[in-house]
Amino acid sequence: MEMVRTIRVVAAVIEQDGRYLITQRRPTAVLPMLWEFPGGRVEETETDAAALKREVRHRLDVEIEVGQLISFVSHPYERYVVDLYLYECHIKSGELASLAVNAFRWVTSAEFDRYPFTPADEASMNKLLGMT
Fold it and tell me: In this protein, which residues make up the domain named Nudix hydrolase (predicted)?
């Protein structure tokens, strides 16, 4: 039996005034044009917090403060498994810009169903909102 690769991914749940920051993947990305919480892959030598700060800065040009772990899901895709860790985060400085994302939006949890999310993020949202 073939070993399935597991990818550790971190994402920031950033809430301001009852709205959450979500980002849309670029047309050339894996799972193109789907929405997700901002974040990315953890490199071998990184902590989750360091990876999250790096990925959010790379994608949105803001510095964040990483808080506590609020959710974890493991989601199998066709060729790999994504272990997704969601952290409560806050923007410390900078102006949001779409550097390495197609778009970003501030949305309420009631609006989540208007956006097609990646399967791992969808599973995380369902868990966060108590829908599982």
Answer: 5-132
pTM (2 decimals)?
0.90
As for how many domains the chain has, the answer is: 1
Rg (CA), the chain: 14
Give the whole-angstrom CA distance, residue 64 versus residue 90: 5
Q: 23-55 pLDDT, tens per residue?
A: 999 999 888 999 999 999 999 999 999 999 999
DSSP per residue, 69-100: EEEEEEEE-SSEEEEEEEEEEEEEE-----SS
Contact assessment for residue 58 and residue 97, using Cβ atoms and an 8 Å cutoff: no
* pLDDT at res. 132: 41
Q: What's 74's domain CATH number? A: 3.90.79.10
